[in-house]
Write a structure and sequence with these properties.
Layout lengths: L2 H8 L3 H7 L6 E3 L2 E3 L2 H13 L1
Antiparallel strand pairs: 1-2
Length: 50
């Protein structure tokens, strides 16, 4: 999934996703970041920890 959808499901903004720096490097589809569903769990954990 692309960063916009990923951020929406994680309950944050695309800018915040880029700034976390704690998430694994996403795959690339051309020039777009493509995040895996497994990484969504990490993003949710980081969000809760804040």
């Amino acid at each position: 999934m692309y960063i916009g959808e990923f951020a929406r499901l994680a309950g944050t903004t695309p800018k915040a996703v880029r700034l976390y720096g704690l998430l694994p490097e996403p795959r690339r589809r051309d020039k777009y970041r493509a995040y895996r569903v497994k990484v969504l769990e990490w993003a949710s954990f980081i969000r809760e920890a804040q």
